[in-house]
Structure prediction request, 108 residues.
Amino acid sequence: MTVENPAELQAILETLDPGTRTLVAEADLANETVEWLRSSPGRYIVGCAHQEIMEAQESLAGTSPWRFWRVQELQNRIWRAKSLLSWLRELILSGHQAVRTLEEVEHE
Prediction:
């Protein structure tokens, strides 16, 4: 179901129980995230995250283990970029699961 008028969408959402509203919101958020990832800014941010991981891993491989602070800094750069990608992935997966749940309820 596609609703372009925000007031119409709000009216429909108000008729749903809170659990269903949450599922619809998760599904909608996942759709928006996928659209954003397909956009130029989305592709740029994901590309930056992958680049950050690659550069930090290369630097980490050449860093002496006794340079504790440098090792920690590089590990944090990797963690930050991987976290961003993980949050986006989780957002999309949770939306897909919400859609499956809504479809199961609809077929009951």
